[in-house]
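**Reference record**
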Amino acid sequence: MDKAEFIAALQIAQEAGCQFVVGVPSLGGSSTVALTPEQAYRLTTDKQALFAELMGLSVPEYIEWRESQGSVYCSARTKQGKQCRNFIVGATWLEPDEWKAQRAEAGYCSAHGA
């Protein structure tokens, strides 16, 4: 079955009352999100990109958000010139939109001036 046939079959099922949902890995478990037939197909071809899109993030952002558990890293640099790996005070367990906004604003951990 090619892509067009797959999506057409899903559209027929959807028109008959079926819903397509996926558990997107998120903080503390997963978030249930409804899918279009096209998104359901993409689930089979590029799951990571679909999850990122559903959370409103790019793939690298989604990976960082999950790995940091929704926390934003300090904007300061260490003496070696590397980014501090501490989290900004109060910027933990943030939902994707909050995380993205806080990340854009930047900030500092308690060691670097919070």
Observations:
- The first strand starts at residue 20 and ends at 26.
- The radius of gyration is 19 Å.
